[in-house]
Amino acid sequence: MNIHELKPLAIVMAATLLIACGKKEAPATEAAPAAAAEAKVAQVDGARIINADSEPGAWLSHGRTYSEQRFSPLKKVNLENVDELGLAWQYKLDVDRATEATPIVVDGVMYVTGAFSIVSALDPVSGKELWKYDPKVSRDKGRDGCCGVANRGVAVWQGKVYVGAYDGRLIALDAKTGAVAWEVNTVLDANRSYTITGAPRIIKGKVIIGNGGAELGVRGYITAYDSDSGKQLWRFFTVPGDPSKPAEDKAMELALPTWKGDAWWKFGGGGTVWDAMAYDPEMDLLYIGVGNGSSWSREVRSPGGGDNLFLSSIVALKPDSGEYVWHYQTTPGDTWDYTATQHMILADLEIKGEMRKVLMQAPKNGFFYVLDRKTGELLSAEKFAPANWATHVDMETGRPVENPEADWSEKPALVSPGPLGAHNWQPMSFNPDTGLVYIPMQEAVAYFVPNPDEEYGGKGTWHMGSEPIALPEDEKALADAVGAHKGHLVAWDPVAQKEVWRQSYVTVWNGGTLSTAGGLVFQGTADGRFVAYNAANGDKLWETPANTGVMAGPVTYEINGEQYVTVAAGWGGAFPLALGALSEPAKVHPEARVLTYKLGGKATLPPPRNVTLDLPEPPELTASAEVIDQGRTLYNGHCGMCHGPNAISGSVLPDLRYMTPETHKIFTGILAGAYASKGMPSVMDKLDAEQVEAIHQYIIKRAHDVKAVVAQPTS
Question: Catalytic one among 96, 144, 320, 337?
Answer without folding.
Answer: 337
